[in-house]
Amino acid sequence: MADRVKYIKRHCKYTEAKIDYIDYKELSLLKHSLSERFKIMPRRLTGNSKDAQEMIKNAIKRARHMALIPYVVSRDVVATDFWEKAQNKR
Fold first, then answer.
1. 37, 78, 80, 33: which is closest to 60 by C-alpha?
2. pLDDT band at 82 (very low <50, low <70, confident <90, very high)
3. Domain coverage including residue 34
4. What is the full DSSP assignment across 10-25?
5. pTM assigned to the model
6. What is the CATH number of the domain that holds 40?
7. What is the mean pLDDT of residues 67-80?
């Protein structure tokens, strides 16, 4: 039989930091839960708790609606360029 793949147990960093609310304006918190193409990463990859994942989902959707985070990224654009531009604006 095939060997079972063992995954690393991930811990929710939002619960460890005792964050009660994730605001959509805090892009530094949101960027860890987004992929390179700005898709929301699943819980099994990020290790977020259910409550934190729901807060992140709502915050990312609000940030997209307010045009702080793009909905779609073309393949030519590298994700790091966007975050560097966001840091320089502040």
1. 33
2. low
3. 13-89
4. P--HHHHTT-----TT
5. 0.74
6. 4.10.640.10
7. 75
